[in-house]
Design a protein that fits this description.
Layout lengths: L15 H24 L1 H9 L6 H30 L2 H18 L8 H24 L1 H4 L5 H32 L4 H26 L16 H14 L4 H30 L5 H29 L1 H21 L3 H29 L5 H29 L4 H19 L4 H18 L1
Helix pairs in contact: 1-7, 1-8, 2-3, 3-5, 3-9, 3-14, 4-5, 4-8, 5-14, 7-8, 7-11, 7-13, 10-13, 10-14, 10-15, 11-12, 11-13, 12-13, 12-15, 14-15
Length: 441
């Protein structure tokens, strides 16, 4: 099949500048996870804000877990509301403002400032997660079905570039401040302002150029109440029984995303505790993972469109299993660098493939709702994966090697469930449901 131009990969009426603006949002928000959750503020929270107390790490993971729980409960109802009201851009705007403002508020956090840090992390991570789900729901409106993987890969790869830019700016600031002998309380707050500023500026084009193509349907006015959200969550899950392949995808996504969550949140801990990496080496490790993830997401999008979403995801899960085994057996730092490179290549590719598969299986008029269910599964995974790693290391008196080996079970389970997904059957079921809905409207 000849390779299409960018326009050839897009739906009729979609301009390339819309796709660029859409991908730029991934560029914008990636700095938040890279700097706040992975590389800078997590260590600052444990070491400075909580004073390295015995409960400091637990407080950090509990704060993140609470934010993910809120997203799990709220996103399906919000997604259904956005579908019915054609309100994806409005929801995206609210979540963006919330994340940027809460990230900037982290600049006010100093020693003992848990009363600011905890709510600001919860608000920022909830808003980030909502925005991540909503921006993904635009994908099927932009790309032709056969090119979902390619266009999704553009967004993911661009996103990792944004993460590297924000991390690079932050690390330059940190290194300059450390050379001047300044304490973390003076330079970490500035990295939060840098992260918020890059996010806010880079997100502007999506609201200028990206069109809302959904048509509003019958729905109540206003934001849904907690009770309505809970009822919508239950209804969405029950209705997913009519889409068995999509339900299997949710199970597959839960398991492999649990493994990815371990890598994102605990790779630096493993590098420090097991491989004896210095702080500088750990920072370079994060850069390597992001570079590999950007290249993997971009290149693998083309492979995905050629061999199919299912086989593409299967290949990345096999890669994840290989990564776990290499990390488990590695006795030298060079071996762990190799494992990190594989993790980076698989990270963007596997997350991009899951996003594309959701779009391929969802009825056209229920994109936000189906992506909200996908978000529910992945956020639950973000709680279960790191918690499992922590329980294994706790039960084995700090054996991180067994913790990473246990993580491999998540990828194996995801691969086994993936084998039962029939993408052709699932996509046909989505089209049938859309046709029935159109006739009943």
């Amino acid at each position: 099949m000849p390779r299409p131009s960018m326009r050839g990969a897009l739906n009729p009426g979609v301009r390339p500048r819309e796709v660029f603006a859409w991908a730029l949002y991934d560029f914008a928000n990636s700095g938040y996870t890279t700097v706040v959750l992975t590389a800078v503020f997590n260590a600052y929270f444990v070491g400075v804000v909580a004073g390295n107390a015995a409960w400091a790490t637990l407080a950090w993971t509990a704060t993140l877990s609470l934010s993910y729980l809120i997203v799990m409960l709220a996103m399906p109802g919000l997604g259904a509301w956005a579908d019915a009201r054609a309100g994806k851009k409005r929801l995206l705007a609210a979540s963006t403002v919330g994340c940027v403002a809460a990230t900037a508020a982290l600049a006010l956090v100093g020693p003992g400032g848990l009363w600011i840090a905890v709510p600001a992390i919860i608000v920022s991570n909830v808003c980030y997660s909502i925005g991540e789900s909503v921006i993904a729901a635009f994908l099927p409106e932009l790309a032709r079905p056969q090119y979902l993987g390619r266009v999704s890969g553009w967004g993911w790869s661009f996103g990792y570039v944004g993460g590297m830019l924000t991390l690079g700016l932050s690390l330059a600031l940190v290194m300059a401040a450390q050379e001047a002998g300044r304490p973390a309380t003076e330079f970490v707050p500035w990295t939060m302002l840098v992260t918020a500023g890059v996010f806010g500026l880079a997100a502007i084009p999506v609201f200028v150029f990206l069109r809302e193509r959904a048509n509003p349907g019958a729905a109540p006015q206003g934001v849904p109440s907690v009770g309505e959200v809970m009822r919508q969550l239950a209804a969405s899950w029950r209705d997913a029984r009519n889409f068995p392949d999509f339900r299997r995808l949710l199970g597959c996504g839960f398991f492999y995303q649990a493994g990815i969550a371990v890598v994102i949140t605990l790779a630096a801990v493993y590098a420090d505790q097991v491989m004896q990496f210095t702080q500088t080496q750990t920072m370079m490790l994060v850069f390597l993972v992001n570079i590999a993830a950007a290249g993997g997401a971009f290149a693998f999008g083309f492979v995905e469109d050629r061999i199919g979403h299912k086989w593409a995801l299967a290949a990345t899960l096999i890669g994840w299993i290989a990564m776990v085994l290499i990390a488990f057996f590695a006795r030298s730092q060079s071996g762990f660098w190799g494992a990190a490179t594989i993790a980076g290549l698989c990270m963007g590719s596997s997350q991009s493939a899951g996003r594309a598969m959701t779009g391929a299986l969802a009825p056209a008029s229920r994109l936000a709702e189906f992506y909200a269910l996908w978000t529910f599964a992945t956020r639950l995974a973000s709680i279960v994966g790191p918690l499992t790693y922590g329980l294994v290391t706790w039960a084995t008196a700090g054996n991180h090697r067994l913790g990473i080996l246990a993580t491999g079970v998540f990828f194996v389970a995801g691969l086994l469930i993936l084998a039962r997904i029939d993408m052709g059957r699932g996509a046909e079921r989505g089209r049938e449901a859309e046709a029935l809905g159109a006739r009943g409207a």
